[in-house]
Design goal:
The protein is mainly alpha-helical. It has one domain.
């Protein structure tokens, strides 16, 4: 079997990309993934790792739309700066990713004092998750 130079170079590049992806995925944590996603949507955010960890724990308790290998692939794309590739993927993955990002952003804005902290120039604090994320919900029964 004769292997061309082009095939050999392509195989080496693919192996290097896969190895780099595995190393990047293994070294990036959930905190970094959420921080990078929020930074892409809101700009740089000032929140401690402890507060972000508490937020992520509460968010994971209610968010089940994106998990498993799909989340790992998106996490890899986010950490490598190639998250825009998802726009060219299958519609089911695009929709699930968009729904995940919307839920993440909504939860972050409602469960933290982001707007107040940004205005005052201080670190963001996790204030707690509400039972219902609808700000117009009426619980009085009227």
């Amino acid at each position: 079997m004769r292997v061309s130079r082009r095939t050999l170079l392509f195989s080496a590049a693919a192996a290097a990309f896969c190895t780099g992806g595995v190393v990047t995925l293994a070294s990036s944590s959930e905190n970094n993934f959420v921080r990078e996603t929020l930074a892409r949507m809101l700009g740089q955010i000032r929140i401690s790792d402890a507060e972000l960890g508490t937020f992520i724990k509460a968010f994971k308790a209610v968010e089940t739309d994106l998990d498993g290998y799909k989340k790992q692939v998106i996490q890899l794309l986010e950490s490598s700066g190639l998250v825009s590739v998802i726009d060219y993927g299958p519609a089911a993955i695009r929709d699930r990713h968009e729904r995940y990002e919307r839920n993440l952003l909504t939860s972050f804005l409602l469960w933290t004092d982001y707007l107040d902290a940004q205005e005052r120039g201080r670190d963001i604090v996790f204030v707690g998750s509400a039972g219902c994320m609808n700000p117009f919900a009426n619980f009085s029964g009227d």
